[in-house]
From TrEMBL:
SMART domains the record matches: VWA
Keyword Nucleotide-binding: no
Annotated function: Collagen VI acts as a cell-binding protein.
Stated name of the protein: Collagen type VI alpha 2 chain
Pfam family, one: VWA
Amino acid sequence: MTYVRETCGCCDCEKRCGALDIMFVIDSSESIGYTNFTLEKNFVVNVVSRLGSIAKDPKSQTGARVGVVQYSHEGTFEAIKLDDERIDSLSSFKEAVKRLEWIAGGTWTPSALQFAYNKLIKESRREKAQVFAVVITDGRYDPRDDDKNLGALCGRDVVVNTIGIGDMFDQPEQSETLVSIACNEPQRVQKMRLFSDLVAEEFIDKMEDVLCPDPQVVCPELPCQTELAVAQCTQRPVDVVFLLDGSERIGEQNFQSAHRFVEEVAQRLTLARSSSDSMNARIALLQYGSERDQNVVFPLTHNLTEIADALAQIKYLDSSSNIGSAIIHAINNIVLSPGNGQRLARRNAELSFVFITDGITGSKNLEEAINSMKKQDVMPTVVALGSDVDMDVLLKLGLGDRAAIFREKDYDSLSQSSFFDRFIRWIC
């Protein structure tokens, strides 16, 4: 189902899915990796964003309440509880999910499922709510764990959906693990090869149908909400690579607006304190044009002076556009060392590519480039400006995640606080 947002006055209509208690159980083990763990969190937020408002009162008999268990080895389980009184809105839920940190230990999936039931669902489920669990795993778990607990959520009036990610599920015995978690209901098992498939628009649509098959859309007269304070990637490792379209379609004035935007982002983010700092943000910029026109304006850096000096000397390419070659060049010259192929992006950091483009580009090398992004665990964001855009290309750049595409009417929007704050919140 595609949920179309309508507008009543200045405010969005409200989607109502009935009384839902939803528990996400997500793998935070070392085998998942930092970027894939971030994709899991984005999946959770994207799905919950589709389900209407969160019940403000944990004891309310209407609305949705959402919890999350992230798990790794024994004794490391962390949770956002269904009855947490601090979670009283979608915004507060998103902030709580963002604060979850990758544990990077072993994998005790059966015990995590037992924990999810005993400590969260059993203690805080609402009497009249339908209870769903969504379990995400790459299938690996410690053999010392009790596999009898794979069915810990079964027979307890909980609808369990399992998502298995990775090629190991081609093996029948691993598929049996997924079916066991899903209470022997194979129709509630979803297999995918890549974690990036979690945030694909089609899959989010599917999960929306599963969790809210018959919604009501109500348009009350509500006052507009004030924007929340913006996070600045404080103590969160992010390597952000901007890919700026320098083709003739953009125009020099718009190009100047775009590179000023990059500088403003650098000034807003909390940058790493040194070249050896494993936390906070670093930024790089690649300007691209035709298949052979790529210019690394500055590599991944924490140095604001270096960024400002490089931007002051940038020259508009004013050529044709080939985004595929640009992506490959960015990976081979910014993410990896052009000399020896060693990784320059920090392994503990989320690697984010930000495309500033209308998507109208040559198609050569594009599929190869998209596959290279996936191999490097790139988290894409697309800033699409103007009315004349190629949405098919933009979706490819966003790895199918429509939420990762920011559509704005023109380049002047880059300097508007409403867009700028949303963008900062997204990449942080």
